Input
Amino acid sequence: MQATEKTLNEIKAKIPYVDVKKEKLTSVVYVQKELLFNVLKAIKEDFGFKLFIDHSVVDTLEADNRFEAFYILYNVDTKERILVKTKTEHALPSVEKLWFAAKWAERECYDMFGINYEGHEHLVRAFMWDTYSHYPLRKDFPLGGYETVELPSLNESTFGDNLSGTMNYKRTHTYVPTLKDLEYTERNRIKKKAQVVLNWGPLHPGTHGTMWFLFDLEGERIVQTDVILGQLHRGVEKLAEHEPYQQFLVYTDRMDYISGLCSNQAWTVTVERLLGIEDMVPLKAKYIRTMMSELQRINSHLLWLGTYALDLGALTIFLYAFKEREKIMDIIEGITGARLTISYTRIGGVRMDLPQGALDVIESFVKFFPKELKDWEKILSRNRIWVKRNKEVGVLTKEDIYFYGLTGAVARGSGVFYDIRKLEPYDAYSMVDFDVPLGENGDCYDRYLVRVEEMRQSIRIIEQCLQKLKTMSPNEPFMAESGDPKKLKLTLDGIGLKVPAGEVYSSGENPRGELGFYINSKGGLKPYRVKIRPGSFYNLCVYPHLMENRYIADAVTVLASLDPVVGEVDR
Amino acid sequence: MSIIALGIIIAVKVVVILVIILGIGAYLTLVERKVAAHIQRRPGPMVVGWHGLLQPLADGIKLLTKEDILPSSANPILYNLAIVMALVPATLVFAVVPFGPEVHVFGYDIKPILTDVNIGIILAFAFGSLAVYGVALSGWASNSKYALIGALRKAGIIISYEVVITFAALGPIMLAKSLSTYDIVMAQIHQKVWYIFLQPISFVVFVFALLAETGRVPFDIQEAEAELVTGFTVEYGGMKFGLFPLVEWYVEVLSLSSILAVLYLGGWSPLNIPFIGFVDPFFFLGAWSGFIWFIIKVSILFLLVLWLHWTLPRYRIDQITTVAWKVMLPLALFNILISAFIAPLLRG
Amino acid sequence: MAYIGLLSLLVVMLGLSVVLISLNWLLGPKKKESYKTYPYECGVPLYDDTAQTTFHQGYYILGLLLLLFDIEVAYLFPWAVVYSLLGVFGFLEVFLFLLILTFGLVYAWRKGALDWQFDLESL
Output
């Protein structure tokens, strides 16, 4: 929840030169940019807002101080969230000494908005290649980009000027990076200190997607490493400014494509909170959303387990896990009609009710699955080789969690109780009973155990939702009905939904971390700025720190235990 | 024996070995895929031929008709030499493997072993040691960082386990008092005991070394796709690529399993009750039952290797070499100490 | 005389490997494309021009250790064969030899040469 009046007053008392304001959905501290670093330091150390959630910029197109930057921080002990805002024309002090996660967030803001961060150690672009000359998220950058280059396609080079029929496309395209651009980017990103620099690159079967790592190697020891992202960057945040709220839902599936329903749920809950209709959502819809989200969590963790075991050599677990995934995806397909890009939730409820027989199928799955999980644990959890590969590898302390902004199973593996489902409950999570597993040592083995135990807890939640849904009649509503359709139009297709002005930050517990949405709305059909806080992005930023002085063999283990998905990292 | 008879006998033996390497070696790929599939609860190759029996043929033809690419920065001579260096020594080990007892065919006494010399075991290990050349050369010649790292890792493992395997093999040699493979088996038959009962430590160490030398899980960081994308074979395509796993995973496993069977499991002798005698359900075949027993033993060892491959995760490279030098080698030395006390007690 | 079989197998296998390689070269397609022969580095431009640069000395140390212990075992082979005829003297003499070499192994162990890619600072 947002910080209380009491906390804000304490901050104002201690640091008199800031302005504090408690809005409807956020608690904001306004500060001038010259004093930003000290204020953030005070808020972090004296007031306990240690966990870095997000940092980004809104382009307000005002005459002076065009960019409004915000920092979202969280206090894990008192469960309070605070927003620190400042305004700038083109430069900001860098806060990477306070949080390493800010280093990556600042790279992204530099890339997207062109803001110069003073004191940043290595300010390079986050997603675009280093010779790119525009700043895409500024409001004066057109949605289609600048189409200046003639890139002949295969048809054009074959047929020359004799293109006919449907082949009448434009000849000019937006700029595409050449090999020279890539080479410049990679040389700029890391300066060689040791023997060779290895590209553990985008086209590799082990990197869970198109992530580009650079390893500076001394024999097999990694001396330094860095990550080049952006191979899967699709400009989702720019697209969000041109889409009505309901239509943006389909983009949320495609970010974390393995757990689409959880992302859908997070976006829907955010918009519902901004509208203020959280209580209007019918109980049936809440239970259905919770149940489907937990099924999706098991699905995602099964994929994680399968690929983790595959990367470490236990090839059989991969196939066992995928067999169970097939069962879940069949269930999801029967209910929602899609396996991967689901878009099942709607603002106000769900798309359609559960079909007949769905509850029985889910019940039989829930009965059968824990036994399977126990069988696999016999192969892995006490296996000497597995333990030797995972214990003492990639150890993260509690301070690391706060410093790198880690969330999800990574944070819980180190013993930090950070689960959005318990701290800021949404949907039916406050009405079901479940435990949150916490690890002790923060190494890869603990993260593995935490995720396996989370699967069991998900089964528990699904069982309780099943019990509740069985008692509800099929005629109960699954979509909220608006009292006054002229002021608030809630339909299944969402056309004409106007959202009042305001801003909100709300997050959901994705299997990979905390997926948060910051919406800045100026009223109307489309949002003004949407910032997506991806769990995988900040989980990945600890990778260079973990890989220092380790062997390449650990690169796979550590990466798999952090569990990134490139769609979410790159958006 | 006349020259012609000698020539025919040698030719037949060479052909048998070739059939083993190419024919059985290729069909072992199908066996592996089927066993792996059934462990993973799926049927495996079923389409090509009845239950996939023509699959190795299809794979072979596919590999032969793929494009032969030479990387632009590779050394062509070393690049091609590496394959020859990998294939030839691994198959030469079969020259000293005794497949069965002496048989009488067409009036000649033939020992089913291509080279019956009194230093058979040394030859076997010598050829095994040459295996490291194929690996190291291919990694260096490919001139790609992935190939080099993978090759150096594999070479490091092979040379570590070379030492271990030769120390472990000293145990049975002391008990048998001979270096000839044929004589070691005859010694086990005369002493009426398989050496596995007298040398369990050495057997376990040898099995570990077998898994490591041939690049099988849990020691197959070479094939760790997630890290190194097939390691030293990354720049090879077509049949050249196909020959590396054929040699590493199948031919070397077969040859080292045969040596294992010879040293510890009594070669072609039937089931053994220690110090009492042998029980042979195939007695009606006479001398030929020895061949069947040899095949049974090697098959069981191969299936054991497959079982481990598809169940266990893999070790990290530093753990593999650490285990070799710090655990296996002291165990092998300890085993020599014990054998030094047991050996004079055995007669014959 | 007994090596005729071995030599004939050697010749046959050399011929076979050459045949297989040439068969692949004959039967495969040959299409020249610009980046087909670029070294594999996950689809992006190379950072270092060539991979045949220096490499870590840890590999060399393993090679040295192999040399030592292989020669040791080469000395032990004849001893193993005639061991039963040598009596106590043979046992003691060779075990002294093995003990001295085991001290060598312990020395390498303590110095960290057996750890994979030791740090220079630990020497």
Q: What stands out?
A: The CA atoms of residues 34 and 83 of chain C lie 65 Å apart. Helices of chain C lie at 4-27, 58-82, 87-111. Chain C touches chain A through 17 residues (CB under 8 Å).
